[in-house]
Design goal:
Distance between the termini of chain A: 21 Å
Number of helices of chain A: 12
Strand content of chain A: under 5%
Distance between the termini of chain B: 39 Å
Helix content of chain B: 25-40%
Number of strands of chain B: 10
Order of helices and strands of chain A: HHHHHHHHHHHH
Number of strands of chain A: 0
Radius of gyration of chain B: 18 Å
CATH topology of chain A: MetI-like fold
Low-confidence stretches of chain B: none
Low-confidence stretches of chain A: none
Largest sheet of chain B: 6 strands, mixed
CATH architecture of one domain in chain B: 3-Layer(aba) Sandwich
Shape of chain B: globular
CATH superfamily of chain A: MetI-like
CATH architecture of chain A: Orthogonal Bundle
Oligomer: heterodimer
Mean pLDDT of chain B: 86
Structural class of chain A: mainly alpha
Largest sheet of chain A: none
Strand order of the largest sheet of chain B: 6-7-8-3-9-10
CATH topology of one domain in chain B: Rossmann fold
Order of helices and strands of chain B: EEEHEEEHHHHHEHEHEEH
Radius of gyration of chain A: 23 Å
Mean pLDDT of chain A: 88
Strand content of chain B: 15-25%
Chain lengths: ~260, ~250
Amino acid sequence: MCLQLTRRLQSITNKAAPVISLAVLAALWLFVSEGGIVPAYMLPSPVEVVKAFVNDFDILCSHAAVTMQEAVYGLLIGTALAFVIAVLMDRFAFLHKALYPILVITQTIPTIAIAPLLVLWMGFSMAPKITLVVLTTFFPIAISLLDGFQSADIDEINLIRSMGGTRAQIFLHVKLPGAVEQFFSGLKVSASYSIVGAVISEWLGGFEGLGVYMTRVKKAYAFDKMFAVIILISVVSLLLMALVALLKRTAMPYKRSRQ
Amino acid sequence: MAKLRAENITMGFDGERVIEDISLKLNEGEIVSLLGVSGSGKTTLFNVLSGLYSPESGKVYLDGEDITGKAGKISYMLQKDLLLPHYTIIDNVSLPLVIKGEKKKTAREKAMPYFAEFGLEGTQKKYPGELSGGMRQRAALLRTYLSSEGVALLDEPFSALDTITKSAIHTWYLDIMKKINLSTIFVTHDIDEAILLSDRIYILSGKPGRITDEIEITLPKPRSNKDVMTEAFISYKRLIAEKIAFEF
């Protein structure tokens, strides 16, 4: 009884903790800006930001739609590419040795540095933006998938072999399902990268998108609008990550049933 | 004619010999135990018999046919149940049929009738994570049975279970073996288990491992775990204990 109560309290505190910390942060922000501690042109008050958000809602949405489109296309292509590369690298050891260092090197190149190059090569259309998202999202997924494939239990592999299973069957029944969990942790990281990647690529040229809008309001020193966009970007990223979490739950019913 | 025959199997890794000149046979419907201390090469021998590894020298015959180094003929069960966590019990159990080219639906239909016999009724749609250790081993044994062409190798299948579950599963195992007529080689380091379950016992010892003794168990059947206390049982136990060479 007592234990049950403690557990219940614990669960309430667990849920309450992030809510409280967010509320404290918001209150602090309100206090600092409204109280005149930081001048309004540097840090707009949350009230201003909400106002900007509501007033510009339609414009924000239309820009967000473009950014989302780039991010999702990029994420889908990145995932497909990562899957193909990870399968090939798992299957052929020499490809693993040859490609792994290149993959790591591509990750040390800052996104912001290649974005202008992509614009020069591909113009102001959606293509360079999608390409940039592909480049940033591909790596976490490829590496997590590859790790998933390679950490397959040797005894499980031998079991399928002892049944007379082929390499393809081992992949289908052991390696692929075994990598699902790691795949989704990679996808989660990539999903959050995808929005940011799209926004950054839009900074450097384009006609639509949250990044384009951001550079515009920056030039106008409209800090309230700037903050509204930033918050919108994180909300959109969170939504995409929640979608990934939902997909994961659907893909792994056996995790749900386990206590 | 013996169901399964191994002749002069020698095998090693990285230049170090693990088993040497091992010959054994398994008759139709027989349960034979391989008894030996850890490190005597039992698992290596199993990997050779099941065709996962090709031996350095020696041959394995199933029904007179040379199956050396050919996997898929003899089924295999380990101490770890190796039920795939992402499949339901019915899909785990029918997996060997799917691997051999059956459609998923047909494979399920073929596996279904055995669930009652193996005491697994009602577990079909559960995931392995929801079952107890004893139930999982039963499911693994059913899968082993469905993947076999009459011969199964069991590598310490019950050693991860607690004593009480183990004793219950022994009785169950002897019972099920009578029904399904599976010829079995059983690896164990538990002398009681070996005597209780086997028709014959091979003793594997030394480094590299060799078969040093073969003992026929003539205790009356059906046996149950109560027999462990009988005079005849204990004299077998004494005999085997003397023959196993412990090397520390």
